[in-house]
Amino acid sequence: MAEELSACERRPWVEATEKPFVRIKGITKMFGDLAAVDDVSLDIYRGELFCLLGGSGCGKSTLLRMLAGFETQTSGAIEIDGQDMTGVAANLRPTNMMFQSYALFPHMSVEKNVAYGLLREGVSKGEAMQRTKDMLSLVKLDGFASRKPHQLSGGQQQRVALARSLIKQPKLLLLDEPLGALDKKLREETQFELIRIQEDLGVTFIVVTHDQEEAMTLSTRIGVMDAGGIVQVGEPREIYETPNSKYVADFIGSVNIFDGEVDVAAPDLMRVNSTEGPIICEPMAGLNAKQKLHIAVRPERIQLSRTPIEATNTMQGMVTEVAYMGNLSVYRVQLAGGQCLKVTAANGLHEENPITWDEAVHIGWSAAASTVLVK
Amino acid sequence: MRQSKLARRFVIAVPNIWLILFFMVPFLVVLKISLAEPRIAIPPYSPLWDWVDGSIKFNINFENYAYMWEDTLYINAYLSSIKIAATSTLLTLLVGYPMAYTIARAPEPRRSILLLLVVLPFWTSFLLRVYAWIGILKTKGILNAVLLWSGIIDEPLIILQTDIAVYIGIVYTYLPFLILPLYANLVKLDDTLLEASRDLGASRISSFFRITLPLSMPGIIAGSMLVFIPVLGEYVIPALLGGPDTLMIGKVLWNEYFSNRDWPVASAVAIVMLIIMLIPIMILRRAQTKGAEI
To answer: Given an 8 Å threshold on Cβ–Cβ distance, is B196 in contact with A105?
Structure first.
């Protein structure tokens, strides 16, 4: 496995160089009249760590449960490694799942929990115990084999759940909010642990999460979901820098959104009239004059100064709030038109006389920093 | 602060006083009678102590306990009671577990109705319900009539006044006591545990025996004890449905008190029965503390 390129180096989704490993084809799940998952199609490649990202009730967990075989789709089909999964029961699928609540068997020791899947498969007891031992050391839980789940900390339970779901060497591992129950510090450590294990074993991971930071750190690609549908699929950088809709821009990281309509849409000039005055963007094809749209500008792309700024787009405003975050400060700047912008700036060492409350400031950003959102 | 402390003591005191007054005092009275000698008098036993010349003189008598060893009737009655109680507990479990499981898995609105149906028989008198079984089970009763009419049997079954009738009566009467604690346990079972088991390759049946059943053990034990303990001393059901061969300690106790009027021996029988019952109660307590750990 080591010599082979990992999925994030191969990037098979850029050009169709290989066959997708998981194919979700027009899948819909109705609960009564409500479509929890609405006509979703998705291709996921071998070795990927794919994140399904969305708010609660967006259908991401239902989609995962259909992959695992706990829910049956109303229409559409799922194919894993070339095999149609329709009608295949959960216990016969080449997938394993790590549950949000971990779902560790409370009456069994750690060892028995982890060995459970192997023993059900008919692996001999000796081999099962050996593989369990190896798996426990992979997740750094040697010496905990005889403990009961309730004697473990949250982080340890999480690793038992991971070990248990990996022991059968599934082709596809489904993880439902795998880090949701951990505190922030532990979550950050575990993220990298998860990536290490995923790359070591070469298993394809599909992770469901509502935490955009988690999705950005973990994944090769992200599928942003809203109201049962996939809104955008792409690499973390792509999703962050070129969101395709207001929803995605708003969901991933923080962003300032201007509402406006197209003033000039020429091949060499693109200008939008917003409530705060004209904004220059990179020229873009397919837009009409007077078309209503949104402009998204990331807070870290905006410069902030007491003196006028040389930039394509400049505005003036008043600082209403400053939050010191250590490495950077977050400013809220009130503009003349009534809109409030979020601006982040890195903090220098021993900065004297930093910008503070109630100061008049100049702000500016480049044309490339203004992302045009039609939806 | 002081007031709340007083209130707390009061709250604890109420059940304690209740237990002392209605359990401890009668128990001591029975213990006292079991150590006396029978007499043809009112009350029909000798006093435990006398005032002789200004000093106390005790008359403690262990004859009654020794007598129970000598006459095999008592030992046989105890053994037979334990056998009947154990068998009917097992039968009740076999009938009650699927019922409790079905109720616990039923969707919410239906669940309450099913639970109501389980406790519904309590609304009529227990005695009346046992009498109803006589009507069903007797030679010319409803059951035989239906079976004869449908041609399944040619001559009536003799069920009434046999041990089978006793088992039917006990299972019927004590079923709710088993279903309710078992239901309370099963309804708490986390569905994702079963999903995890299925996900790891176990079939539905295998998941039941490896996950559901072991996790419902505290409920099984609690329910079984609630059946086993009262059945051990059951009097009404064997007296009404059982025959002359049905030997149970409750019946022996009744005979000693009311036919023989030998209160001291009867009290000794009761005390020994209580000690026998302590064993399952201790098992129950252990199971409960173990269940609390999970």
So the answer is: yes
